[in-house]
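Researcher: Structure prediction, please.
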Amino acid sequence: MVIKVNNLVKRYDDLIALDHFNLEVREGEIFGLLGPNGSGKTTAINCILSLLKYDKGTIEIYDKPMSPDAYDIKRNIGIIMQNVAVFDELTVFENIDYFCGLYILDKKKRSSLVDEAIDFVGINDFRKFYPKKLSGGLLRRLNIACGIAHRPKLIILDEPTVAVDPQSRNNILEGIQRLNKEGATIIYTSHYMEEVEQICSRISIMDKGKIIATGTNDELKGMIDSGEKLTVEMFKIDDEILGEIRKLPNIISAEFHENLLVAKSHRGKNNLVALLDYLKTKNIPIGKIYSEPPTLNDVFLEITGKELRD
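Model: Predicted structure follows.
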């Protein structure tokens, strides 16, 4: 087991940030950690890294107790946080060399590792640039290079694709998958559910300081009642028929907008067939038909609720 957290409790006066938080991350995983704002994700990560003291519980990394002075463990960890943390006074090469130098003292070895990190994130043409001259996407890639240059076995990425263009986001996601194929275990947090669906082998959803669901993408989808979303193109539909559709077995909701009937259903078989059979009895001509399975976003909203968070 790469990470094992047992009954972790962290309080800020009367606020319980982590409420008997438990987590297990296996070797070789890309593990997604999801939660609404204020759910405790960042607090959990900071406790795991021994950047925060906690009130109760145990944390083990690679079967060893984690502590602020566990430098043998920390050498094997790479951290890429949401806020880009590089030095404006140093070039791209100098930034990566500095952070790699915190772990690798041999200059020759470090220079080779820095070159590898620059090539890995695709910023070789910018190695002499200062951060203020880089775009947002390039800054993110520099930030990742700084965190992985020392070849850590465990990499923690907190919202690494925030505010970047689609090309940079794709480059970052492909890079994360390559790191995993090369042997790194990865913890990944994001508010972009499609990213987590794309790259994570196992996912935990947390809220109010504790884990409330864990599993693969398919396992999590199997935990909720929501089934497929049915979309049918049609010219028009009156309110009476729309009301009858909403009363059909297994239909949760139905709306009609801009020539599209969109119906959400409970899990079950033949939901689309039943809807089409009903429309046929009403002699309603239809166009294209779509059926979409539930997404991770549907799971997240059903498990954590739809109320706005700060």
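Model: The first strand starts at residue 3 and ends at 12.
Researcher: Thanks, that helps.
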